[in-house]
Amino acid sequence: MVEMTTTPRILDGIAIAGQIKAEVAVDVQALVARGITPGLAVILVGDVPASQIYVRSKVKTCGELGIFSEMLTPPESITTAEMLALVADLDAREDIDGILIQLPLPKHVDTKRLLEAVSPEKDVDGFHPVNVGRLQSGQPGLAPCTPAGIMEILRRSDLPVAGQNAVVIGRSDIVGKPAAMMLLNASATVTICHSKTNDLGKVTREADLLVAAIGRPGFVTPEMVKPGATIIDVGINRVTDAAEVEEFFPGNAERAATFAKRGSVVVGDVHPAAFALSGAYTPVPGGVGALTIAMLMQNTVTAAKLRRGISLEKK
Ligand code: NDP
Fold first, then answer.
1. Ligand 1 nearest atom to the CA of residue 292, by list position
2. What are the E-state strand segments in the chain?
3. Ligand 1 pocket: which of 51, 151, 195 to mutate (most atoms <8 Å of CB)?
4. What number of other Cβ atoms are within 10 A of residue 238's Cβ?
5. What is the atom index within ligand 1 of the atom nearest the CA of 216?
6. Domain boundaries, the chain
7. Which CATH class is domain 144-292?
8. Are 232 and 288 in contact (CB under 8 A)?
């Protein structure tokens, strides 16, 4: 059993996202003064309730920051060819700087083909192979929002990255792989783990910086954590079982009230007991998740600037 030595620092994603959004709003004003209003188009196919919530909040944040937004809502029955035509239209439009295709798409739509159809200059999700390559080779481009948010949390919290032993659990194209690449670009020594990793706990116990992007509630237990490590919990999992909620949050009146009201609570990929051992951690909710939309807004402004050859340097 490992003893807790100090009180961990909670990394407040909501506050950091607020700072970034305020900076983006200033950037937008400067562009508007030059006659440029950054524009984001969001394509939402069908009626996936979670996607509708995400898209609504993306559109709302655009409005708050002065970014023009347009929402396209084709029906579930849309074909790949029709989606490609929609993307081509948006790609040709001068008033649209970013095109976001809300995932997941219906099974009959070829997601890979569509993501590649968005021109890299308008790919604000950073999923196009050209942007993946730019990230890998350290060139300016558009990088995926969630891992970019992780880096902002670390940077703005003055947490060291260079020289740190960073372990990323998860190798998805959306989170794990780009997070690992960004940490490597920031000179961490990076290990990527996944479902086939042998003796995962042995690897994670070496981590000064542990990123969990797995999609399994409370997967990282105290035994897997080096005391004092920084833990970044990307997971967003909905737990609907009362016994499980009590296991994760024993005696926690706030979580019990949320459960009573909504029938579920959100739990990250890290067990709350593991946070207690850390030096610093991102809570769920209120950690990494809070950053994703802020980074999308930043990417939209970056896209508007890159496409017009405007310097990204802050004055
Ligand atoms: P994926 O399902 O695409 O990837 C999960 C990764 O976890 C895979 O690489 C998988 O390994 C690995 N994994 C699964 N089980 C194990 C295991 N037992 N041991 C070790 N590794 C394992 O998920 P995402 O990357 O898209 O998302 C991860 C989490 O982050 C989810 O909870 C998601 O909701 C959340 N998320 C949060 C966002 C935010 O804004 N905060 C944005 C995006 C995601 P393998 O490759 O071998 O299968």
1. 40
2. 9-10, 39-43, 68-72, 98-101, 165-169, 189-193, 209-212, 230-233, 237-239, 265-267, 280-281
3. 195
4. 12
5. 32
6. 32-122, 144-292
7. alpha beta
8. yes
% pLDDT > 70, the chain: 98
Percentage, residues of the chain above pLDDT 90: 95
In angstroms, the CA 77 to CA 83 distance is 10
Which residue's structure tokens are 């950053």? 291
Question: Which residues, 6 or more positions from 50, have their beta carbon under 8 angstroms from its beta carbon?
Answer: none
Domain 32-122 falls under CATH 1.10.10.10: no
pLDDT grade for 3, boundaries at 50, 70 and 90:
low
Domains 32-122 and 144-292 share a fold: yes
CA 235/CA 214 separation, integer angstroms: 6
Is residue 293 a contact partner of residue 312, using CB atoms and an 8 Å limit? no
Asked if residue 16 lies in contact with residue 295, where contact means CB atoms within 8 angstroms, the answer is no
Please give all residues whose beta carbon lies within 6 A of any atom in ligand 1, as ranges. 146, 169-172, 174-176, 193-197, 200, 213-216, 234-237, 269, 288-289, 292
Mean pLDDT of the chain: 96
For 52, other C-beta atoms within 10 Å of its C-beta total 14
Asked if the peptide bond before residue 104 counts as cis, ω within 30 degrees of 0, the response is yes
Both tokens assigned to 32: 């508007």
Residues taking part in catalysis: 58, 102, 125
**Model pTM score:** 0.96
Q: How far is the CA of 175 from the centre of ligand 1 (A)?
A: 8
Integer Cα distance of 271 and 246 in angstroms:
12
Structural tokens at position 45: 């196919």
> Which residue's CA is the closest to the ligand 1 atom numbered 48?
195
